[in-house]
Design goal:
heterodimer, A: 179 residues, alpha+beta, Alpha-Beta Plaits, globular, B: Formate dehydrogenase/DMSO reductase fold, two-stranded antiparallel sheet, 13 helices, 1% strand
Chain lengths: 179, 392
Amino acid sequence: MARFAMLIDASRCTGCNACRIACQMQWQLPPARYYNRLEHNEKGTYPNTKWEITPIQCMHCDNPPCRDVCPTGATYKRTDGLVLIDGKKCIGCKYCMVACPYGVRQINDDGIPEKCRFCAEYIIEGKMPPCVSTCMNEVRIFGDLDDPESKISKLMARKAVYQLLPEKGTRPRIFYVRK
Amino acid sequence: MFTRKQWLTISLILVCIGAVGAINILLNGEHVMGNTNQVPWGILIAGYVFFAASSTGVGLISSLGHVFGIKRFELLGKRALLISIILLLCGFGVLALELANPLNMIYILLSPNIKSPIWWMGALYGLYLLLLFAEFYYSLKEDHKKVKPIANIALITKLAAVSNLGVIFGMLHSRPFWQGPYYSLYMILTAILSGAAILSIAFYFVGQKGRQVVYQGENILINLGKILAGALFITAIFTFWKILTSLYGGIPGKSEAAIALLVGPLGLKFWVMEIILGIFLPLFILIKYSFQPQKVMFASILTMLGVLFMRLDFVLSGQIIPLELIEGLQITGYNPYVPGWSEWALIVGAIGATIFLYMLGEKKFNLDVIVDNHEHQENLASTKTTLVKVEA
């Protein structure tokens, strides 16, 4: 059984937003809707300052609060780790949007709070999500943690990594390389 | 005051305003609502909480009569049940328009997630509505043997339902200002607050029509006014400590939300509408005029206005602070939220519908509960004497 995850090396990010645009193209999203975004944070004190960029998208948590709060089970977690939405069951209560500590849900025209789905339809064919394949600096590495030969497994074994908001107990499947 | 016909006209105008808002929301969805991805819950969720908690509060106070056997509160009887039913139906109506896909509600039954507080809200308020219908039906038939056990189960159900309403927010670890058991207790307290206020308004007009509102020489509005004053006082204490504990220590997400209420974008609503108009002014009126029925009614109208904004402040305060997901991220500004006109219209329409349906109920059903016939006759006689004197 696969255990999909993503490793993000934010220090390599140039802030070009190609990941966001590639995702929007892939899913035919309007300009104002996006499933991944870049958070910018100014670090240091003038004149020794720097711009830190952190790519953010659905964390596909192992303990996802959006799944727990969904009254109809429209949000569910697959055994391979992907957190997905069954639009047919969604009542549009937006509880998942309020419950997500990462603020990654975006309401679509059908009133369904959509988000990154790790391109479930493409990775099954062995393809990479466009946010991964389009990035010129290999900021994102996507793969199967249960495969010791996968690139992500090898990098995870070598690098010090962290997750966002560990205190929320969500156990994200997106890891960041510690700077 | 207005005549029955004028009240019907006013309420129908309000219903029409609400209908226009509802149609606009149905046709255009989220585009005409103030909700954003950062503030997904807006005034319609606040409106639902306003109606559902008020319905529960009316039910809780009427339980004093038909569950706890306090004779004077038996006067509230059928009218309280009818008001409770109408408020809950209006609340469900507001919620249905907030939901993007209400028709998918069938999946609450087909694939229930019992870990979700919203699932429990549907289950408990659904059950409460059924119990209310049953209790009202048997009350109209004067079948007290059946009313009593239903009322007992309804009491447990309504307490569970209204505290679960707070749990919906309290379970959210992503929103530090809401998280915790505080809002479960707060919901029970403020439900009693709005229940006492709504019953006071209703029974003031019931008394004006010459129905029995006096028990053992004391107008029921005096008792309702005292409950209202107590609830207002405790709400003030609750609010004070909530704000202070949130500010203390500068905990991210908590203290900023408290600051947003005190001096931020929610400040005007919080101080003017919720605190001054909704708590202190009614409390002052109640105490200064020693719970005179007319003043109780006036204080109750102010309270309900305050409660409406209290619900809005509560819903927005948990979402107004941007999520701090990266350590040291500079948060600049607040998440903006401005309700659309259609949403306001819907709230106004639901208030109109409450008045309209209640008046229909008054006409259709015999809602009088004569607790002490002798006293009622005396009361009627004194009302007639007063009327004769006024006419003379």
